[in-house]
Amino acid sequence: MAEEVFCLQNHLEIQKKIVPELLELLEKRYNILTTIYYNQPIGRRMLASYLGIGERIVRSEVSFFRKQNLIDINSDGMTVTTEGKEILEKLKEFVHELKGLSEMEEFMRKNLNLKDVIVVPGNVDENELVLDEIGKSAANYLKELLKDRMIIALTGGTSVKKLVDNMSKINDYRHLLVVPARGGLGRKVEIQANTLVAKLAEKLSADYRMLQLLENVDYAEIFAILNEESIKEVQENINNANILIYGIGKADEMAARRGFQEAKINKLKQAGAVGEAFGCYFDRQGNIIFSTSTAGIKSENTKKIEYRISIAGGQSKAEAIISVQRYNPQNILITDEGAAKEIINIIKNENNDKGND
Fold this sequence. Notes:
Blueprint: H1 2-18, H2 20-39, H3 44-51, H4 55-67, E1 71-74, E2 77-80, H5 82-98, H6 101-111, E3 116-120, H7 130-145, E4 151-154, H8 158-166, E5 177-180, H9 193-204, E6 207-208, H10 219-226, H11 229-239, E7 243-247, E8 249-250, H12 251-257, H13 262-270, E9 273-277, E10 280-283, E11 288-291, H14 299-302, E12 307-311, H15 318-327, E13 332-336, H16 337-356
Helix pairs in contact: 1-2, 2-5, 3-4, 6-16, 7-8, 8-9, 12-13, 15-16
Keywords: DNA-binding, Transcription, Transcription regulation
Domain CggR N-terminal DNA binding: 26-95
Pfam families: CggR_N, Sugar-bind
């Protein structure tokens, strides 16, 4: 395998020097076909809008894909054929090496002390469809970890929802249990932890438990509720989780979603909070600035979980991602090219600043 990757890298270097325009064309067509796949059936006008390119260019590329039997076109729009899906899968590794994503993964693995890193092409900030690819990669990674009698805890959020959406239905494992990692957050029902727990459990043919609690309730109420037998059982399952799946947010955005007053949000900013995960707000060095009160996983207990899969993408989330990874070394990070590039820039700048001290 190592020899194959080495040969591929050599071929890419030669092609970049001799026919760089071919590689640019390949990347462009890969992006177009991927966009069709995640939005099928889709019309030409909508495709052009998603990609931010002219309809004339889209018409030309669509004609090419159709001649190559990579897409079908009917009254509902364009769909990717079976052959097209196979081509997309084969192109993934090629595009991965073409864009130098393996080197990015290795840099972050070493410099953030991570167990594993997967970087997908693109930038969520520029193209929301990249989050689907992140979710698909995260779902595939989860499938590789599953064993009988595992407990899987997950938070809510759009990124975690993408993992659940892209998880295929399997029934290969016995006595799996899926639980919410935290109490619910008063926002869209479709991305709340309880909703995602039920959906993932259905796809894994697993059992599940729910945690019908809201965040930011009074400590006295939390203490009373945690002593209820039904909640105690769920809390124990959460503490014994083998896998934790969670998203990462920007501190100020997550504080606003949780209904924090502006004065409190400003206080968090002044204290250096840049990232949020499982109800905790972190500075860039991974220190906890503030944590919300709720039932569910406690920050210190996350370190005891064997597999922690963090999912986040977009250049704008780079600082947030760094902050959470530094709190919890040996994480598994699934992210995108946009975030990875910015993370690497931040770390290199930090190292240069240290060298100049």
